[in-house]
Amino acid sequence: MIATQGIQGIAFFEATACLTLLVLFIHLKRDNPGVFYKLWLFGWICLTLASFSELGYFFGYSASLQIMATASGIAALVLFLASIVQLTLGQNRFFWPMIWLSVLMAVTAGYYQSKSGPWGPARWESTILQSMICLASGWLLWRAASSVRGHGTKLLAGSFTLLALNNLNRPQWTFGEIHLLRFAFDHFLNASLGIGMIVLLLEAARTRSLEISEKMRQFTLLTASSSQSLALPVLLQKVLGQITGSLGVTHGIIRLKEGEADAAEFVCRASVGYTDSYLKQLDRMAASSPGLQAMIQEDCRVSRFEEEKDPKIRRAMADAGITQLISVPLRGKKGVVGVMNVGALPGKRFHEDELTYLVNVASFLGTTVENVNLFEQLKNVQQQWV
């Protein structure tokens, strides 16, 4: 049992801070579906487990909790590094390999820590590994900070760098009489990692919100200036090009409804990225087809190639070379007048605000299509009476 309660208070502070930030990270998961965030969330769960294991160890429950704290802490740092690699160097599919690597590193660190015996100091092997991981994470973030607006990346990079420097001689300040100041600073830096990531996520969300607002403004100006001066197919082609370019995707197609009741079809009127052979095969889609009905029944339907159950949609996605297909119906005052599909190549992930942007654009575009059709009908009637 530790004679002074100072170190127990420090450990309690870290445990409660990690638990509070874990609740925030779980709450933000919906708006951050990327692989980097999943790795960070798993890492933070490991760090929270390490903090509570350390708290129990300092209250004298079991000496084996120190091994658990060391192993969980190493696993957390490995997952943090993997998350930062995803964030700064681009998304890839190394999700499960990094999970298994963190488990392997945790087992290795726990094995070396067990050699210190009960109530032993930190091992040099684990300390050097922790510092190397933190330095690598800090270096990647510092390199990326110059091209990213905001302070979240710099705060996170500084926390990792200071954590690496503070842990360089950890066995010396955990042997015998524990240095409370160094110990408290270490726990403060662990908490600051979570604060830095929260700031980074909020800044990224604010940037996306501003970008979406600007895209919506440009889209409104484009449709308002072209709806009466351009033919409908030309207008749709310009609008689709603006939408795909603003979202950073390569494929898009707009189909308009022709005919009524059972004879209704959705015909391609504008496309981006699709080959001529693909468009000839799927130029017309029956309104009664199950795939099209699924597209127009929801405000926004996200189809992923590996999860899609409709064989026709899977085959169409495979022919186009896309892994995600976003389907948004164009609704007018009298019902659905068309459907817009946006396809993305592997590696692209749509954020929730981007999907909301597509829904708003589709609603505005549906009304525009109705108005343009009405304007053309009035123009034809006027020409007949002249």
The structural domain count equals: 2
Described by the principal axes of the CA atoms, the overall outline is elongated
Largest sheet: 6 strands, antiparallel
Q: Into which percent range does the helicity of residues fall? A: 55-70%
Structural class, please?
alpha+beta
| Through-space gap between termini | 101 Å
What do we call the CATH topology of the largest domain?
Rhopdopsin 7-helix transmembrane proteins
Q: Low-confidence runs (pLDDT<50, min 5 residues)?
A: none
**Annotated CATH architecture of the largest domain:** Up-down Bundle
Total helices: the number is 13
The whole-number mean of residue pLDDT values reads: 82
Number of strands: 6
Question: What is the helix/strand order?
Answer: HHHHHHHHHEEHEHEHEEH
Integer-rounded radius of gyration:
28 Å
SS strand fraction: 5-15%
Write out the strand line-up for the largest beta sheet, numbering strands in chain order.
3-2-1-6-5-4
CATH level 1 class label of the largest domain: Mainly Alpha
Please describe what this structure looks like.
This protein starts with 5 loop residues before the first helix and ends with a helix. It contains 13 helices and six strands. The model has no long low-confidence stretch (mean pLDDT 82). Helix 1 (6-27) runs parallel beside helix 8 (180-226), helix 2 (35-58) packs antiparallel against helix 3 and helix 5 (124-145) packs antiparallel against helix 6 (152-166). The chain folds into two domains: 6-206, Rhopdopsin 7-helix transmembrane proteins (Up-down Bundle); 227-385, 2-Layer Sandwich (Beta-Lactamase). With 386 residues, the protein is an alpha+beta fold. It has helices at residues 6-27, 35-58, 64-89, 95-114, 124-145, 152-166, 170-173, 180-226, 232-247, 276-281, 290-297, 311-320, 352-385; strands at 251-258, 265-272, 284-286, 301-304, 324-332, 335-344. Helices cover 66% and strands 11% of the residues. A six-stranded antiparallel beta sheet has the order 3-2-1-6-5-4.
